[in-house]
From TrEMBL:
Protein name: DUF4198 domain-containing protein
Entry keywords, A to Z: Signal
Signal sequence interval, chain numbering: 1-24
Superkingdom assignment: Bacteria
Amino acid sequence: MKNFQRFSIYLTLMFSAFAFVAKAEEVDNIITINTAAKIGFEQLPKVKVDIKVKKTRELYVALQDKQTWRNIKTTRKRIKKSGNYHFDFNIDNLKPGNYRLNAYITPRGKDWNSRIGEQKGVDFIVVDQAQFVEKIQMATEDKIKGISYPKTIADDAEYKLDIQFDITEPRDLIIKLLNKNGWKEAGVLSFPVKEPGNISLPIDKMVTNFPAGDYAWMTYLSETGSKQPLSNKRGAHFSLTNVH
């Protein structure tokens, strides 16, 4: 009987803990807040906030001087549904220095004393120049570094085509879909790229749009506005199986 009682107590505690976690997950909250790491003193901080809410809430974003920890200004926006919100934080005469943006949410019409969930913050720097433009580190060679795609596609689900590249100046990234039966071109895409990096393309409905067979994605870099290869070529081979 004692063992049964202990087991009953254990179950009660376990389900109580589960109920608490479930309830905690339902609480409205700010998931993330972001802004540019550096701006010039004539530029406005651009706020990006990802919020989860089940009803209308007030979003407060406060600008804080990190040297004195003084709140400089607070702005409020009414949020009616979950999502990503982007806006400029309007502020005049922001001097060079270190700052922080703090965000929190409250019930409609309420303030800090009624805040919901945790406050989230992000730091940034105002540099001693009117406009801060981040320098792009270009490569010394135009090059396709890698390409990847699943080896077999058997449905219309979304799959990612990932390409990594280096460029010496702005280029066009050319992507061709080739049918390996005669190496016929089945499609071509062109994307302007302004700095070295990568691109991840979501591609779906391949089974609907193309017949079964063996294919390859082939990619290279060209001068802007041209289709002529300027770099090496890289390919990703795959089979398309129309199974219905």
